Amino acid sequence: MTGRNPIETLAHLRHEFGEHGGVNMSIEASSTFTVIEPGTMPEMFQGLKGHDAGCYLYGRHFNPTVYNLSLQLAALEGTQAAYCTASGMGAITSAVLALCNADDHIVASTAVYGGTYAFMHDFLSAKAGISTTFVDITDLDAVRAAMTEKTKLIYTESVSNPTLRVANIPKLADIAHEAGVPLVVDNTFSPLILSPVALGADIVVHSITKFISGMSDIIAGAVCGSNEFIESLMDLHVGPLMLLGPTMDPKIASKVSLRIPHLPIRMAAHGERTLALAERLDDIGAKVCYPGLAHHPDRALFDELRCPDYGYGGVMTVDMGDEETANALMSTLQNKYRFGFIAVSLGYFDTLMTCSGSSTSSELTDSDKSMAGISPGLVRLSVGYTGTLEQRWRQLKSAYEDIGTGSAFARAV
Ligand SMILES: *Cc1c(COP(=O)(O)O)cnc(C)c1O
């Protein structure tokens, strides 16, 4: 199976011009909207006239600028509909809460974003009696075995964080659909590279904060799915987006909208740079993990599923053995060679580095961390595209050699 090239859908999207003919859409900076006839108002509350007919009610419900950005996200993911949110967590929590009631059950990947893990492991169980079984998502038998009568969804990240395993979306979708439940995929790590819905998934969530924004200046998210599902998020009585209110500001929607057109160029640049650095590090004996490397366990699966135009993504990890050596590498890279920044998050134009076990995955219990394969010395690099490849390679190689010499890890190997 090959993923449908989602750029075709983006390229065919109707272009939204500004109010005065501007090439970019206007910002509808209003929290409330007028109607000509008072009778229109009750019709909107009854759902007879909606945003698709150009009728808007209130900014927490639908806003035209956020709606237009959402059309871009739907085109990006090849879904009927989408809606953008104030954060990735706003998108994830809303989608999950729309699918589960008290006492329901979720089957989720162990290697999910720390906030998602905490939401399912701690928050949902305590606040709503919704339980989650975390499984190694690459072990399809374990996924099948975890399904119960009460399971309402399977949840995975397209490429796991920070372990960089690729989810077998078609097979996971089969397991979900056999049980009559949706497969929800967090595609934050691989926009354009993987099109989960074309591969069988039902709902896609994004942290726009990362690659889609690309500048680490905005927190935002999106939920993509069927018309019916997106409408259900806005239900006046039980819609999580409507009632919990993780609403995207229209000014943010306008900014994000201007970044979607060059997302393809940026994803390709991240992928090209990361592959080159991963291969070179691998060649000098570093313990590199990157799904584009020939020896990565999911390289063949990734080739089967991905759109070939965008590479293998912008995140790689280097296992330095222990936290101390990992910290020494990051510190040398940042403070001696100016290779990148020690900071959480990813998808920035410059390189961001973290020691996952003690930062972005610290919400996981020690046993879930080891089950997920997150070693204490694992450095995650979200590789940027600034500078030239040769400049960046000189910095990375020098830092690695500075640290590698005499370190516990180098002695062990
Ligand atoms: C950052 C991230 C999130 C959370 O997104 P926010 O925009 O920070 O709320 C969710 N999933 C993944 C994979 C992420 O990297």
Structural features, described:
- The protein is α/β, with parallel strands linked by helices.
- It has two domains: 6-261, Aspartate Aminotransferase, domain 2, CATH 3.40.640; 263-411, Alpha-Beta Complex (Aspartate Aminotransferase, domain 1).
- The chain is 39% helix and 13% strand.
- The chain has 16 helices and twelve strands.
- It has helices spanning 6-11, 40-45, 64-77, 88-99, 114-128, 140-146, 169-178, 227-233, 240-244, 250-257, 263-283, 299-305, 323-336, 366-372, 389-404, 408-412; strands spanning 81-85, 105-109, 131-135, 151-157, 183-186, 203-207, 221-225, 288-289, 315-319, 341-342, 352-355, 378-382.
- The strands form two sheets. The chain has a seven-stranded mixed beta sheet with strand order 1-7-6-5-4-2-3, with helices on both faces. It has a five-stranded mixed beta sheet with strand order 8-9-12-11-10, with helices on one face.
- α3 packs parallel to α10, α11 runs parallel beside α15 and α13 (323-336) crosses α15.
- The longest helix has 21 residues, at 263-283.
- The model has no long low-confidence stretch (mean pLDDT 93).
- The structure holds pyridoxal-5'-phosphate.
- Pyridoxal-5'-phosphate binds next to α4 and α5.
- Pyridoxal-5'-phosphate is lined by residues 87-89, 92, 113, 115-116, 157, 161, 186, 188-189, 207, 209-210, 219, 221.
